[in-house]
Specification:
By secondary structure, the chain is mostly beta strands. It is built from five helices and 41 strands.
Amino acid sequence: MVLRFRPVASSRFALGLLLSSGIGSSLAAEIELPAVNVQGQEESGYRSETASVAGFDDAPLLDTPASITVINAALIKDQQARLLSEVLRNDASVGDSYAPIGYYENFVVRGFSLNAASSYKINGRTITGEQNVALENKQQVEVLKGLAGLQSGISEPSGVINYVTKRPEDVRSVTVSTDDRGSGYIATDVGGWFGSEQQFGLRANVAHEDLNSYVEHANGQRDFVSLAFDWNISPDAVLQLDAEYQNKQQRSVPGYQLLGGTQVPHDASPKKLLGHQSGSKQVGIDSLNLNGKFEYRFSDQWKGSVSAARSKVVIDDYSSFAYGCFYVTDCGTAFFSPTGDYDIYDYRSPDDTRRDDEVQAAMTGLFDTGSLGHELTVGTSAFRRVVDKRKSVNEYIGSANINVDAPTFTPTDVPLNDKHRRLDSRQYGLFVTDRIRFNEQWQTILGGREVRLDEKAFDQNGNQQRHTQQYEFLPQASLIYKPVENVSLYTSYSKGLSLGGEAPWTTRNDGETLAPTTSRQIEAGVKYDWRRMSFTAAVFQTRQAYQYAKPDGTGQFDYVQQGEQKNTGLELSANGWATERLQIATSVAVIRARVTGSGTADYEGHQAINVPKLRASVYADYALPWVNGLAVLGGVQYSAKKYANRSGNVEVGDYAVVNVGSRYTTKVSGYETVFRLSVDNLFDKRYWRDAGEYMGDDYLFQGAPLTARLSASVNF
């Protein structure tokens, strides 16, 4: 670990000490401290003590009345994670929900789906979620589980994913990597401080990756570049800017479907690309994320900030898509046939554009009223999301079977449709939150956000379908009790507002975006810091309107909001150093998810689709005492069985996946070098990792087979 004290900050700290101790200001003013580099062992490891995702500034996790998981850069590096799914496997409350290779990933948290429009953030500002955010320039990934209406405005009851970017520091490193399939990866991380008083900081991350997928015919490539800039304008004013761009090209991999709607495919290979057509194009995803923040400290008690962000994603969506068996004799359903026959569609939707713009201003102050201490934050925000896309071309070109390679069919010659605006959603917010400390044991956090939503939804021809104007107050209240300094007990209540879903193409109201829905949550938990370990436990209950394709009994469907889904659960976690040489990151989640009042009896009275009742994750790092610099790593992810359809009459089995690895730190030609080896799915387990629903249809995705990855990082 390298700690760098810059002259401006060091001198100011020294002057404060001198003045407070009574030494004359004239003597203090003559003292100038040089930059100091301190070398030492990284003590935090995989454990993080603060997060910003649950508020408007960094706060200790022990004082935050919410269930939060923080996966930091140390764990991301050791697991050699490149995708968010590889990061979130460390949290048992999170699961995949239509996360195919070659496309952007989707997730469920606490049994509710995240929303690409509002559930993902970088440095607290909303980004378009239809992208696979690069991790090379990320310091940590924060997961706020549950409602975040106060913090985010319109958001899903599942929670929020926040990426925190690396800030400038003196770093020069190169990482190269490969895997058992011959993929190639190189990344550089370069940063430093400059200027007459070292007031300017820059950090650049560049990466290129050649993706050799375990799925045949699904290779691809990825390029990424980012720049972070810090300017310490004065001891009281700081400007931070971030920009990142990524281009990824890869064939998307369709999921399997139930055979005849009643049976999970047997002996299916995770390496097979269903519906492969040699002339099909790759999916291209261009993403640009920009954000900046200016913070000014008016006094030791008051500070203000202004932040802004733009996120834009352009998707060239092409696929030879395996779906249903409408053109197979004696089949004609939205599932694969009982014998594994399926139809292939030539799907084309290029230049699919999503853009988010957001600005926020906030003021935070510390003051007392009588015996009560206050930490008050007030602010305002504005957010706009627009979606511009074509009505997709989705033409049948032939049929095949899951047990053989698909023949080559003639691609469609249907021309592309015109591009139209499909959504223009604007929200404006006023928010206030006050952390009130009664004494050393008791504190409460009271707050709320007044949201004004102005949203226009359009059909596939650009004609306006709906204009929603809505005001909603989203309150949040919590109580924290700390019987001793390192233990906190909390309870909280919150209300949220979520964007309505889009009707899938299989419904009569295809393409319609439904009105926003409200959700409510209560949660209670305990947090305990012991030495270098952190333990947490939380119980919660979340309710949200149920949105689904409702059958009308004639074979037709309407996408509606009817009934309610209620998820109740328990979460446990332990993170940190169990011994001087052993650190662990563990997580357990038990969730009961039920639907009531939907008007469709088959969808009620059982666990919701793709939500296992139990999921667990454990990861460990043990530094070997007899080989300096060598550590062995490993972990297990477990999931109980889960339903693969809304009716709850088909399920995929439980599974446990074992991962192992090692890390060796040494010097090569005088430079610190870290070698990492990771082997995921050590026993080559076959399992269904994802049995979720997407756009009204059920899909099944298998987990990756045994995968080995080797990397070397050199710090210059």
